[in-house]
Amino acid sequence: MDEISDSDFKEFVRTVQDLALRAYPNPTRADCPGTQAIRDVARQSRPAAHPVFQSHIVRCSPCIQDLLAERTRIQSQRTNWRRALLAVAAGVCIVALVSFLMLRQRSGLPVKDEIARAGRVPEIPLDLRPYSPTRSSSPDKSKPSLTVPTGRVRLKIYLALGSPEGAYEIQVLTNRLQTLRSLQATVVANGGTVFLPVDIDLSAMATGTYVLALRPEHDTEEWQTYPLILKHTP
Known about the structure:
Layout: H1 6-23, H2 35-42, H3 51-55, H4 61-106, H5 113-117, E1 123-127, E2 134-135, E3 146-149, E4 152-159, E5 167-173, E6 179-186, E7 188-190, E8 193-201, E9 208-216, E10 224-231
Parallel strand pairs: 1-4, 3-10
Antiparallel strand pairs: 2-10, 4-8, 5-6, 5-9, 7-8, 9-10
């Protein structure tokens, strides 16, 4: 026996279907069970086993055509419903992921913490303890500058003992005090030191001098400012 290809089989099914749609004409729709009965049959997993199919539809071309149309409509609805469910599920996953990232950031445990520890993001310590912070909108030019490489980095900003705990606002400004980066971090206490873990992307910024500013999130005092230098990574 010659092997039957998929295309040959599909063509055979179409031919039989076309014959069935023409073989049993019923122009007056005599004894047809009606639209609701056709829908009931079409919803069955095995429509051919339904009594209405066996007693009438199988010998009525118009009903066969109606049944095929209803099955096609149902199948299309189910496909669209599955796609909608997948879209909703994807949306829920995205919202959950964003919420998770935000909660991790606000809790002082940034998501990039694991990446930094793995060495993919350099960790740069900035020790502010030797500095006398200036509580003003202009940095003290006499202070030694803090140096940070351009790119994506994790800053570990060490604060002076006695600094307020909780969340801080951190900004990177131009020398004209225009805000370029603005973010938040929460103080982490480790033994006798306190620091702010700050993940920041400086890759789009040119090398040069800037201003690092920070203050407690609920502090009504002025910003503490420090000279900051960005340099290319060697």
